[in-house]
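Hey, I'm writing a tutorial for new members on how sequence and structure tokens pair up, and I'd like a real worked example in the thread rather than a made-up one. If someone can provide the structure for the chain below, I'll link this post from the tutorial.
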Amino acid sequence: RTGQIISRLMVNFSSSVEDEIGEKTLRAAQMARLDHQTGRRANLKTVLWRTPWKFFQTYVLRSGWRDGWAGFHACSLTALEIYLREMMLWGMQQTASEDSSPRQQLRRAA
């Protein structure tokens, strides 16, 4: 028995792994900026937890393993995007806290 796809299926092909990683990096930077603007904060727990959880979620719970190597590759890249986003958000937080330190405020006043 065959079913029908209920929603629109979107496929995005990249010409190379480098292009795919570049797209993931850009998307992670955009999401990190948005998270930073909305006040979301990254910490060690979220960095260490979200990346493996996203891989587990996509590979095991959403049956990425059924696609073999391609599924493993796609799930790994998805987890990489989460890791990059969390690390970029953490970097933005560090930059913001350094800019608001008393030492930086004195330098700006001078």
